[in-house]
Design brief:
The structure holds 2 protein chains of 2 kinds.
Chain A lengths: L2 H4 E12 L36 E2 H13 L3 E2 L2 E2 L1 E5 L9 E5 L5 E8 L8 E12 L3 E3 L5 E5 L6 E7 L6 H17 L12 E11 L9 E6 L2 H20 L7 E6 L4 E7 L9 E2 L6 E2 L2 H9 L5 H12 L3 H7 L3 H14 L2 H19 L10 H12 L5 H14 L3 H7 L8 H14 L1 H8 L4 H13 L6 H12 L2
Parallel strand pairs in A: 13-14
Antiparallel strand pairs in A: 1-11, 1-12, 3-7, 4-17, 5-6, 5-16, 7-8, 8-11, 9-10, 12-13, 14-15
Helix pairs in contact in A: 3-4, 6-7, 8-9, 8-10, 10-11, 13-15, 13-16, 14-15, 15-16
Chain B lengths: L5 H10 L6 H18 L23 E2 L9 H5 L10 E4 L9
Classes of the chains: A alpha+beta, B mainly alpha.
Chain lengths: 481, 101
């Protein structure tokens, strides 16, 4: 019997998401990734005396969008607070965050843990705005090196209710959140760049118990795979303690990626005491209901809504709709192509198999598509009209997808125009038969392989530009005569 | 019952990374006690139904547009650093038991 059968697993997530702004939360310093160390800094990022924070309007709008997209209440009055702690990457000695009065409260997400399972509603306690800290690099020297480029970068922290019951569900919840925030343009959510980072609170209790068990928090999970592995490992570790009659001691853990294990960073004895208080440098953030509604009016369709629409209006299968809506870029591209072409299911088939296949092969996402979706629709229309074969489409696709262009021009340039002229094809078939009278005889004698041989000859003559079905029909017509 | 104990003073000092001598801890306890006594006058005010105030001015925070501007050069940024390798601030090793990230 595994741990989750003996105990109920309870997981709460806290996710830090970098907002897609150009400048920092409280200063005009640039937000960038991969820039030279300490280049995107100003007086405020360095906490030089006298520097005062001024709030970035766009960051507020993005945070409100995040709240609206996750069904939160948007508070018209919220307050920035100082979270006090000492660390070299935090030059002020405090982080500006929100504490008692966050921007967003009481939302939810519907999460589907696996294909075919029912959606679970996962509560969101709050979403608040805060600034990121700098970065300390520990390179095995006597000290640490500090880069303050990240200092002051705008974040939201999304705090979930402890509603999750498995690592798998937790990862599905993270994926859903990231997908929504990317759709909404709130964040790029690039985990490798630290734009989407997660802490997981894990506790166990006996089935049927209502009180929560003692939790341990795993910090800074920066990939879905590590999140799943770390949570599963922690569930097993706590089950082992409880099985042996022991008690879990509250602690903060890190996840060692190389060893694949969690380790204790600090235990309860030196628990956090951040002495939050309202930041006297910042007045309360006030939003009018009108402003909130104006932001709501700019929200794009949610992925879930789009999925339903693709199923109902375009007649796609649920699985296909899910794949096609996984990113907004892909969904937009597909939708334009489907509308331009007129047969969404045909377009979906090609996108799912050939377009996504080509992207996977190059390890790229839909943003790498240089081909206009209208041109993709045109290419498929050319095939419908018999001017290019399916094989010809596949030959052109890689180049078209990544370099773009008019498919008709390329098709001519490559000499892939299908042999659709009946007279031309018929003459060719007759010629091939005349040149292979021996093969004709073996067909007549019952050797069906002879037909394939003749097919191959004709196709070679056309360099694959003929529709195989038609060639076959023509050959049979003449052979059976 | 004192408003603040010596233990609380020492705990607060530790959070602020201050090391107090016995004499300093005694003096600090006395001073903080007096400050808290003074502030305690506010407890006599009836605040029933009054919204907690986070700021003395009844204003809201101004907002600025999301337009980045050139900041300090890395050289200027590092000019006052006690330690630097030319591109980073260099700081003494951080002991794990002291971290509060």
């Amino acid at each position: 019997m595994n741990a989750s059968e003996r105990y109920e697993v309870v997981i709460g997530l806290e996710v830090h998401v970098q907002l897609r702004t150009q400048s920092k939360l409280f200063s005009t310093a640039k937000v960038g990734f991969g820039d030279a160390p300490n280049h995107n800094v100003n007086e405020l990022c360095l906490a030089l005396p006298g520097a005062l924070p001024v709030l970035n309007a766009h960051a507020v709008e993005l945070a409100v969008r995040a709240g609206l997209a996750t069904h939160c209440r948007i508070n018209t009055h919220s307050v920035f607070a100082r979270k006090n702690y000492f660390y070299p990457d935090l030059p002020k000695g405090y982080q500006i965050s929100q504490y008692e009065q966050p921007l967003c409260s009481a939302g939810w997400l519907d999460v589907i843990a696996a294909e075919g399972e029912a959606a679970q509603r996962i509560g969101i306690t709050r979403i608040h705005m805060e600034e990121d800290a700098g970065k300390s690099l520990h390179e095995g020297r006597a000290g640490s090196a500090v880069d303050l480029n990240r200092s002051g970068v705008p974040l939201i922290e999304v705090v979930f209710e402890p509603d999750l019951r498995s690592a798998r569900q937790a990862v599905a919840c993270l994926r859903t959140l990231r997908e929504i925030l990317r759709y909404m343009g709130v964040s790029d959510g690039d985990m490798e760049k630290g734009q989407f980072r997660c802490d997981a609170n894990v506790s166990l209790r006996r089935h049927g118990e209502s009180a929560l068990g003692t939790r341990r928090e795993i910090k800074n999970l920066n990939s879905f795979r590590f999140a799943a592995a770390a949570i599963e490992q922690e569930v097993a570790a706590q089950a082992e303690i409880l099985d042996a009659g022991g008690a879990v001691v509250q602690a903060t853990l890190g996840y060692d990626v190389d060893k694949g294990r969690c380790f204790v960073m600090r235990s309860k004895e030196n628990a956090d005491d951040y002495r939050y208080f309202p930041d006297p440098d910042l007045l309360p953030l006030k939003l009018t209901q009108q402003r909130i509604e104006a932001i709501r009016a700019t929200l794009p369709e949610l992925p879930e809504q789009r999925r339903a629409r693709f199923e109902q209006d375009l007649g796609l299968r649920a699985d296909d709709a899910r794949v096609l809506t996984a990113s907004r870029t892909l969904a937009d591209w597909f939708e334009v192509a489907a509308l331009a072409h007129g047969a969404p299911q045909t377009v979906a088939k090609w996108v799912l198999r050939d377009v996504l296949g080509a992207l996977r092969e190059r390890d790229r996402d839909a943003s790498a598509l240089a081909l206009q979706p209208e041109h993709f629709a045109k290419l498929l229309a050319l095939q419908d009209a018999g001017r290019i074969t399916a094989k010809g489409v596949r030959q052109l696709l890689p180049e078209l997808l990544f370099e773009g262009g008019d498919p008709e021009t390329l098709l001519r340039a490559r000499g892939l125009e299908a042999v659709s002229d009946s007279a031309e094809l018929e003459a060719l078939v007759t010629r091939v038969l005349d040149e292979n009278t021996a093969v004709q005889k073996s067909y007549a004698a019952g050797d069906t392989r002879a037909l394939n041989f003749l097919m191959g000859k004709v196709m070679r003559e056309t360099r694959g530009r003929a529709d195989p079905q038609r060639v076959r029909a023509l050959l049979l017509g003449k052979l059976e005569r | 019952m004192p408003r603040i104990t010596r233990e609380q003073v020492l705990y607060t000092a530790r959070l602020a990374r201050l090391r107090l001598t016995d004499d300093e801890a005694r003096a600090m306890t006395r001073h903080l006690e007096a400050i808290l006594d003074y502030a305690a006058q506010l407890e006599t005010v009836d605040t029933e139904g009054v919204e907690p105030m986070s700021h003395v001015m009844a204003l809201e925070t101004p907002l600025r547009s999301d337009a980045p501007q050139a900041g300090l050069s890395a050289d200027d940024a590092l000019a006052n650093a006690p330690g630097s390798d030319g591109t980073h601030f260099l700081v003494p090793k951080i002991l794990d038991s002291e971290t509060q990230a």
